[in-house]
Specification:
GO terms for molecular function: acetyl-CoA carboxylase activity. Keywords: Biotin, Fatty acid biosynthesis, Fatty acid metabolism, Ligase, Lipid biosynthesis, Lipid metabolism. This protein is an alpha+beta fold. It has 2 domains: 46 residues, no CATH class; 115 residues, RNA polymerase II/Efflux pump adaptor protein, barrel-sandwich hybrid domain (OB fold (Dihydrolipoamide Acetyltransferase, E2P), Beta Barrel), CATH 2.40.50. The protein contains 6 helices and 10 strands; from the N terminus they run ααββααααββββββββ. The strands form 3 sheets. It has a 4-stranded antiparallel β-sheet, with no helix packed on it. A 4-stranded antiparallel β-sheet has the order 7-6-4-9. A hairpin with a 2-residue loop joins strand 6 and strand 7. The protein is elongated, with a radius of gyration of 21 Å.
Length: 170
């Protein structure tokens, strides 16, 4: 009986810690919240919690509830988005860019107030907006303390990887 117990524990000691560290590094380098690898009977799942905003709250909001927002926000988006490259170069402050392709939402639900507005003071780690990717709501957090100088996207607007979303000033 003791021999069986020892055999059951053996696979647990064979976990490749280098692989676990590599998976954790991938999570740190990307905006993923979990990653899972399976090799034969061994399955390793590495996940992290997003501390600043409860992602579950956003995931529970129905997709259809956001549908009317694009029509209402469409006129406001072009006014806040510079189309002239000279304007982009002249922008002062730090751009907070999208870490993924998805849909930007400025508020948790259509009835909720926006996370931030131009002129708001924000703290490092504070949620500025959320980007939905593959039905997962990903909070985009402020990289530092500052003041919101510009919001460059409209509510329910599609965004690309690396696209500037918000501009922060000191």
């Amino acid at each position: 009986m003791a021999t069986d117990k020892k055999l059951d524990n053996e696979p647990a000691t064979e976990i490749d810690t280098t692989l676990v560290r590599q998976l954790a590094d991938i999570l740190n380098d990307t905006s993923l919240t979990e990653i899972e690898v399976e090799r034969g009977e061994l399955r390793i799942r590495v996940a992290r919690e997003i501390v600043a905003a409860p992602a579950v709250q956003y995931a529970a909001a129905p997709q259809a509830a956001f549908a009317p927002a694009p029509a209402a926000a469409a006129p406001a988006a072009p006014a806040s988005m510079p189309s002239d490259p000279a304007t982009i170069v002249a922008r002062s402050g730090e751009e907070v860019k999208s870490p993924m392709v998805g849909t930007a939402y400025l508020q948790a639900s259509p009835e909720a107030p926006p996370f931030v507005k131009v002129g708001d003071k924000v703290k490092k780690g504070q949620t500025l907006l959320i980007v939905e990717a593959m039905k997962t709501m990903n909070p985009i957090q402020s990289p530092r303390d500052g003041v919101v100088a510009e919001v460059l996207v409209g509510d329910a607007q599609p965004v690309e990887y690396g696209e500037a979303l918000v501009v922060l000033e000191a």
